[in-house]
Specification:
Three copies of one chain form a homotrimer. In chain A, 50% of the residues lie in helices and 6% in strands. With 464 residues, chain A is α/β, with parallel strands linked by helices. The first copy, chain A, has two domains: 49-144, Orthogonal Bundle (uronate isomerase, domain 2, chain A), CATH 1.10.2020; 148-461, TIM Barrel. In chain A, the strands form three sheets. The first copy, chain A, has a four-stranded parallel beta sheet, with helices on one face. A three-stranded parallel beta sheet of chain A has the order 1-2-3. In chain A, helix 12 crosses helix 13 (220-236). The model of chain A has no long low-confidence stretch (mean pLDDT 97). Chains B and C meet through helix 4, helix 7, helix 16, strand 7 and helix 19 of B and helix 17, helix 18, helix 19, helix 20 and helix 21 of C.
């Protein structure tokens, strides 16, 4: 018995499945290229063992605890928000006895992969197997083979990008480089904390940015110089990209004097909501301008309503599984930036969405025209088999494959990375197999495309 | 020859179909649980024969006459709106000779099921078979086996919920209870007529509510007490749920004084459209508060533009097949209610939509987080094979199966109930079979899920 | 070896594919009915050879050059915008060496069809085969068999509609009629240039309309009479339809005095954007009124943001592949027109969309009720295998097949017409085959429907 079937996620129709198997065989062993995610450089800098099963699989994973919470299990029971888990085995048993809730979700696929491939489990997680799982995981985590660097190598990773604040010293990245270890862990410049006036501590953050760079960030020009300096610093440690998580995709292209004035408003906390939005909008265009200068690839992740649950936010803070997508427009929102830089072939902007209606209506037509635009893979709730299928079905006919950029695992759950890439490779193989089975492309083309979707496009798009 | 094939609606691929057949076998004979619909308690109270085929299949069924109307057949020809049908056989022939219009629609599936399973038809309805059908149906309707209570038993129904105004005396429900008949027909509290200022006769209705309960419904507090009293009364006759059909999903949570003032405005007909909307919004939150107190499950059916066809409305009134969906947002609309009650595990709010774009973008993420939220099945135009497939494909990966509530037949066409449940069971079996065939869940899990989707989840969610 | 497989686009599952093959066999050789498109009557009036491969396949085809442009190939390299192509063979090589970009797009399907069926190619286009292709195409284009009229006959066309300005003299159409050639090339009345105040040269156009008709188009009544006169003239040359390409689907039904005043505003260029929009809205209702009088079928193509790329527009003008869809509402937008004419059975309005979210939420419910409304086939970016599949899956259950109007090739690429019809026939055969395989309709019904979708519905809807 096994948790994973070797044909999982392939189309059921035999002819198509046979093609999918062949395509997958050609890519299954390729190295993992991870250009965007939320793992911690410190793990690889310090190379300490991961803690117990709950701290690894339950506490940090929104996907897991949001589902449990939705079914009436409290954060108290799960010890969410506790610095130290008092009764990890008890929490683990709660999780295990509710494992059926994850049927049909990608979380189930990712977890089963880790359970089998890393911990050798063969029976499904349940109340009955909870303790057996707990002990097996706990004991393996204590071994040398489960240290972060060993796992990175075992996962056959070629590169792993983290996501970092401009205020981060990147000391962990530097320590990795200085350690002589060959793993390639690169930072990504994510300036939300210093460009979004709504971000907690924005004013202090801008001030700290000044201190860090020796620029006068109380002035618009000094502020821009400080950002440019930090971007440069990220590059010295291997960074190739920036990332921007705004509520909308709105951009602006204001005259300099107006931008300067607006900066004064947000800095003095006199800006209203519309001005704050306009400032974020302007900053996307400023970031695009800097990208043209320094070559960093730009990612935009818009459309999440953060911290929708007021009570949970008040008590537990950010990132508690209560971020909800909202309708997101791109056609008018991106126009100011595109009017300025849309035709630059030296610029790469990778667009993501949480609003699937934009795939065929807006994103594919935009990326199928503007040289600077590429489409990121299905994100967050849509990083899933059906989500990936919809993305390819709705995007490919207008944007083709070559205006997309391969897969992002985009996770803070390091142990789920191989599982996530495996799902993407299988779904791509299955999608391509259908095109071959329906005689829309030939199999030799599908072989080439499978390779492109797995490593080629991602390395070229992210300059890795 | 037969109208129905035993493999209908199952996926064509043989391996998947074999799994679907097995899953369906496990649930096909389970009792029908109908927690939401629009049948009439009076049928079961009086237990009189249903009238002729036209009064049964054509006149009351929007799905039927809207399609005929869209193809140029007038309401006059169909005798829609006539209290007494003058030439039922002529109307039936019109319907029969246009039966091809329903190809590819769920109406066709429901009708064929009733024609074959209840009336023994084996040839397709057409101009040629119109009279044969008419006579066969007419003669069977006159028999004891076709009385409402006999059909309820023959359908193997466990419970059937009606939808009722707070102003309804529920005399029919009481009569059923007092009759000693074992059928379980329960009312549902649908207060649109007394909480929606746009509802025809709103002011009079609120007054009647006062008379009925002995409360002074000219005051905010009296009005709320009256509503609470009627809810209690519905509970005494077996009611477990409320239902709310608003143009949008907007909620509000006003300070009491403001709510009181707003009530004064709407009652004195001085409220503008925005205030009327705000009143409906406030009432959803009031209803949620009462649900926490009395335990009634809350259903919200938003997003229909009622009576879009002005000429038809002027001449024939409401419910003439001219209600059209509109874009419906949930993320901001539900926020006031969720801020107040979203984390209550004792509260159940079942959300429906006519805007399929909300499935993956808003509804699944909300229901996959908030303990009080569950997702109702695909509604109205989407109560169909493709509609059900899209619902499962777009909802399951984020919300799982356990934040959904099984099937609603939601019909006023009593004879279509077994057909509708059969379609749902077949589509669920087919969807689960695909997950099994693609090795995303195991078959023993699918067996359990099929049972949950058919009876388990619905009985727990609706407290039946 | 061949570019095209005889089973292309059919579902992979063997049983379903066998049904699809049978259905397709019944329709593959039916004549092509092309009720809407953008070919030029002049080709058939003059019957001159088509120029070189680049002028035929690259320069005029947005689908082709937008994809190349999105991947960093400049318009200069492609000689887009040049009156005379200086180095056609060099441009062809660029195109050929990037042919892989079209994998998974409909363009690839259309081109391969033309390459094989018209030019006898059997090897895929690539850098290696570029010259061989160029020479083969060039030499064939010089032959008598490739003259426009010969191709029309070879394509087995029954009728081909062009799209024409009211200011067009239709001299080419008249010349064709007078030539004695039997081909049926009919004009379509597309008045955007004289009803859309945003259209380049609007005022001059309205004046020219007056000159052309002898009406005083400086007055509202004269303007309307002039439009009616041109409609009549189009009818005399075989026209059966009008077409309207507006940014939105907004309609209006103003009192005459208000409409008259508004006309004065737009004519004097004093109208603001909202008034311009209202004028377009009013004109849709005026056109519907005229259609009731003269019997012309009305097509509405809303929702495209034209010329999104400001730099490209400034340098190259309109129609350069930079038109992007936007969200498009129909329920409120069409209400004024429908309130006035929605119940007229003698009126036909064919609705198109670039916003697929409207299929199931708005368009199918509207067309499934109003007698005057029909749904046009998937348009532009959605004239593709997946686009067609989504259209049928999302529309059929509510609107049925009979509220749709068959296929439009809607192309300016004359040589792609047979390929486009072939894709549509195959996709319809495949969709119907699935319904048969899932026992939702019987095969004899599918045979009838396949014929209707191919020729019956289109000829009846467009009165051809």
């Amino acid at each position: 018995m096994a948790l994973l079937h070797e044909d999982r996620l392939f189309p059921a129709e035999e002819g198509t499945r046979a093609i999918a198997r062949r395509l997958y065989e050609g890519i299954r062993a390729l190295p993992l290229v991870s250009p965007h995610g939320h793992t911690q450089a410190g793990w690889f800098a310090r190379n300490q063992p991961f803690p117990d099963p709950v701290a690894l699989f339950v506490q940090p994973d929104h996907y897991v605890f949001r589902m449990l919470y939705s079914q009436g299990i409290s954060f108290e029971e799960l010890e969410i928000g506790s610095a130290q888990i008092a009764e990890p085995r008890k929490v683990w048993r709660i999780f295990a006895s509710h494992y059926h809730l994850f049927r049909g979700t990608p979380t189930r696929l990712w977890l089963d992969f880790a359970f089998q491939e890393l911990f050798g489990m063969t029976e499904r997680l349940s109340a009955a197997t909870a303790d057996m799982y707990y002990e097996a995981i706990e004991s393996k985590l204590a071994t040398r083979e489960f240290l972060p660097r060993a796992l990175y190598e075992r996962f056959n990773m070629e590169v792993l990008a983290t996501t970092d604040s401009p205020l981060d010293s990147l000391a962990d990245h530097a320590a990795i480089r200085d350690s002589g270890w060959k793993g390639r862990i690169v930072p990504t410049f994510r300036p939300d904390s210093v460009v979004d006036p709504d971000f907690w501590g924005f004013r202090m953050n801008v001030k700290a940015l000044g201190t860090m760079t020796g620029e006068d960030t109380a002035t618009w020009r000094g502020y821009l110089r400080a950002l440019a300096a930090r971007r440069q610093f990220f590059k010295t440690l291997g960074g190739t990209a920036t990332d921007h998580g705004h509520p909308t995709a709105q951009t602006a292209d204001l005259p300099e004097a107006e931008a300067e004035w607006l900066f004064g408003q947000v800095l003095s906390e006199e800006a209203d909501a519309a001005q704050q939005e306009q400032f974020r909008a302007q900053m996307l265009t400023e970031m695009a301008r800097m990208s043209l200068e320094d070559g960093l690839v730009m990612q935009i992740h818009p459309g999440s309503v953060r911290n929708h649950n007021a009570q949970i936010f008040a008590r537990y803070g950010r990132d508690m599984g209560a971020d909800i997508p909202q309708p997101t427009g791109y056609v008018e929102a991106l126009r100011p930036l595109l009017n300025r830089f849309g035709n630059e072939t030296a610029l790469t902007i990778i667009l993501f969405t949480l609003d699937e209606t934009s795939y065929s209506r807006e994103l594919a037509p935009l990326a199928g025209h503007y040289p600077c635009l590429k489409l990121g893979p299905p994100w967050w709730f849509f990083d899933s088999p059906e989500g990936m299928r919809r993305f390819r079905e709705q995007v490919t006919e207008t944007a083709g494959f070559y205006n997309t950029v391969g897969f992002n695992d985009d996770t803070r759950a390091f142990l789920s990375i191989p599982a996530r890439h495996d799902v993407a490779r299988r779904m791509d193989a299955g999608f391509l197999a259908r095109l071959v089975a329906e005689h829309r492309i030939d199999e030799d083309e599908a072989v080439e495309l499978a390779h492109e979707l797995t490593v080629g496009l991602v390395k070229r798009a992210y300059k890795l």
